[in-house]
Amino acid sequence: MRPAIRVGAVSYLNAKPLYYRLCEFGPQVELTMDVPSRLAGQLAEGLLDLALIPSVEYLRGVSRGYEIVPGFAIAARGAVRSVKVFSRVPFGRIRRLALDAGSRTSQALAQVWLDARHGLRPEIVEELPMGVSALESTADAVLVIGDRAMKVPHDPFVEVVDLAEAWVELTGLPFVFALWVSRGGVDLGDLPEALRRSRAEGLANADELARTHGPRLGLDFATCYDYLTKVLSYDLGESEVAGLRRFAGMAARLGLAPEGVNLVFHRRRDPAPRR
């Protein structure tokens, strides 16, 4: 009997189509739910075989033999609504920046964008813990991600930027927030096919996901459905790969990722020949 494949995923709304009924389509899957930064740690420690992790954590883990499962991503080709910087001062005057503790890719993107667009490298003064309101931060600006970013009011702030939209305006390329990443040498067997089926079924049932999770998040059906079907992209195509490579280079220049990372993609291992 094939051993279980330990898979880690996040509970954010934006990730749900990627693992919809995954344990049904991939019966060998043992699914763990956590926030992206913790999943990255569990993958690094060998506690998971495959995880949906922030793209910057893939870049930082290449030396561990990490491999991208081809074709899958959480990406955006325009405004994403769930990754924003809220600033109490004009962006060009930000000196102290608080970062959401939930995702390290968005942390890096905020710093990359402020450097590229405004020539700023602000002091990072704190991480905004999960469950703490952006309004409680005393920093000049605060990065907020995930479902709660969609509910923070804009009125108390001088400027607000959607970082995915800002990235596309800066580079002309999509931004890749997260990837399915496996540890090097792990045999995923038929799991990539189960992942494809899960994504297809998840998007086909986006209305169900919106109805189920919208009320819990305080979001109406139309907002949730539009977010899942139009705002986000779940494909890792050529333009997304180009965007990921651009981000890797810009993050490396700020010391937020290693220099010269080559993207490595998972390939199915052929079974060893019988003797």
Q: What's the gist of this structure?
A:
The protein has 275 residues and is an alpha/beta fold. It has nine helices and twelve strands. 35% of the residues lie in helices and 21% in strands.
Characterise this structure.
- The protein has 275 residues and is an alpha/beta fold.
- It folds into two domains: 149 residues, D-Maltodextrin-Binding Protein, domain 2 (3-Layer(aba) Sandwich), CATH 3.40.190; 89 residues, Periplasmic binding protein-like II (D-Maltodextrin-Binding Protein, domain 2), CATH 3.40.190.10.
- Helix content is 35%, strand content 21%.
- The chain has nine helices and twelve strands.
- The strands form two sheets. Strands 1, 2, 3, 4, 5, 11 and 12 form a seven-stranded mixed β-sheet that branches. Strands 8-7-9-6-10 form a five-stranded mixed β-sheet.
- Helix 4 links the parallel strand 7 and strand 8.
- Helix 4 crosses helix 5 and helix 7 crosses helix 8.
- It is globular.
- The two termini are 20 Å apart.
- The model has no long low-confidence stretch (mean pLDDT 91).
